[in-house]
Amino acid sequence: QVQLVESGGGLVQPGGSLRLSCAASGRTFSSYDMGWFRQPPGKERDLVATIRWSGGGAYYADSVKGRFTIVRANAKNTVYLQMNSLKPEDTAVYSCAAKAVGKNEYEYWGQGTQVTVSS
Fold first, then answer.
1. Alpha carbons within 13 A on the beta-carbon side of 65
2. pLDDT reading at 54 higher than 90
3. What is the CA radius of gyration of the chain?
4. Long-range contact list for 4-7, CB < 8 A, 24+ apart?
5. How much of the chain, in percent, has pLDDT values that exceed 70?
6. DSSP letter, residue 85
7. Please, are residues 79 and 63 in contact by the beta-carbon 8 Å criterion?
8. CA 81, CA 64: separation in Å to the nearest integer?
9. Is the distance from CB of 27 to CB of 52 less than 8 angstroms?
10. pLDDT at 64 over 80
C-alpha cells in the first residue's frame, strides 16, 4: 500500500549536516510507523530512527542520538531524517521503511540513498 523513495543523500564533510527525505505514496501513509535504516559497507543493516504514525514516540539508536532527528510531515507524505554533526562512521546506504500499525516488521522499503561522510 506504500511506495517509498529516498532522496537527499550525497557527499558531506565531517561535522556537516544533511537532510534525507522519504517520499511516500499510498492511501494510508499516516497509518504507518516509519523508520530509517542504514547499512555501512561490509556491515549489517541497522536501525537508525523510528517515528510513530502520530509523529510521537521517536526512537534513536545510541550512535545517532543527539545528532539525528526524524520528522514526519503527513500532509506531504514525507518523512525526513535530519543528520547533524556527521561522522565518517555515518557513511552508509540509508533506507526508509514503513510498518503498518499492528505489524511487527517493516513491510515496505525504499531503494536507499548513499550518504558518504568524507574524512
1. 6
2. no
3. 13
4. 4/96, 4/97, 4/98, 4/108, 4/109, 4/110, 5/110, 5/111, 6/94, 6/95, 6/96, 6/110, 6/111, 6/112, 6/113, 7/113
5. 98
6. S
7. no
8. 11
9. no
10. yes
Q: What is the pLDDT of residues 18-36, one digit of tens each?
A: 999 999 987 667 788 999 9
Please report, as a single letter, which amino acid is at residue 65.
K
Task: Detail the DSSP E strand segments found in the chain.
Answer: 3-7, 10-12, 18-25, 32-39, 46-51, 59-60, 68-73, 78-83, 92-100, 108-109, 113-117
Give the Å distances, CA to CA, from 19 to 40, 58, 70, 103, 105: 18, 17, 10, 28, 25
Q: What is the mean pLDDT of residues 29-46?
A: 92
User: Phi and psi at residue 38, in whole multiples of 5°?
Assistant: -145, 150
Q: What pLDDT, on a 0 to 100 scale, did the predictor assign at position 74?
A: 74
Residue with the three cell numbers 544533511 = 18
- 100-109 pLDDT per residue, tens: 888 999 999 9
Length of the chain: 119
Determine the Cα–Cα distance for residues 101 and 105; give it in Å rounded to an integer: 10
